[in-house]
Amino acid sequence: MKNGNAWFLKFFVGIVLAVAIPVLCHDVAYAAATDPVVVIKDAVDEIISILQDEKLGVPNRKAERKSRVVTIVEKKFDFREMSMRTLAKHWQERSPEEQDRFVFLFKTLLENTYIAKIETYSGEKVVFKKSALQGNKAIVYSELVRKNVETPVNYKLKNSDDRWMVYDVEVEGVSLVNNYRTQFASILDKENFAGLLARLEEKVKKGAVE
């Protein structure tokens, strides 16, 4: 589970900033509560206040700041759907208990590894270009603007029970779900599912103490 640290940094900076400081183009409607762009955008004020709160920036409160950001992100991302798509055919082969354990570990791995990189925040912006809807699926197209460099970041969402939730993020055309699917499939070709869980457990434990 290595490879592309720079890509993953862009990915999670994209996630955090997407709900932090979005700039909407005029052709993107954001008045309707059911608009997927709004779903990604509606945590703006809370995230901005967290990032700008100097009291939360001191060393002994950084864990609290991360926890607050995680809480907001968890409201917008469907980690179970992401887990299902990441495991692909292997998902149905697992028991409900194994599925739940995988979801927890995968979610925690992402949080420990990438949301922690919020410390890299330095005034970047996300410009939302447009959204495309098809049935209960949507894609929100955006660009992460960092030091005058524009990086395409697209969010895939699914509507369930009248709620739009993100289930994949593409950075420069590379899918987070596909990236992890390839890595996990490679592991499962050589080891059993328990071996994959053990690897994730180790990663999560290491991330918790860093």
Q: Which labels suit this protein?
A:
single chain; 210 residues; Nuclear Transport Factor 2, Chain: A; 8 helices; disordered N terminus
The number of helices is 8
The biggest sheet amounts to: 6 strands, mixed
Class, according to the CATH hierarchy?
A: Alpha Beta
DSSP helix fraction: 40-55%
Q: Kindly report the average pLDDT value.
A: 80
What would you say the CATH architecture is?
Answer: Roll
End-to-end separation in angstroms reads: 17 Å
Low-confidence stretches: 1-5, 26-33
The rough form would be described as globular
Number of domains: 1
- Strand percentage, roughly? 15-25%
The neighbouring-strand order within the major sheet is 1-2-3-4-5-6
- Overall strand count: 6
The helix/strand class is alpha+beta
Instruction: Name the assembly state.
Output: single chain
Taking all Cα atoms into account, the compactness measure Rg is 17 Å
Give the CATH topology: Nuclear Transport Factor 2, Chain: A
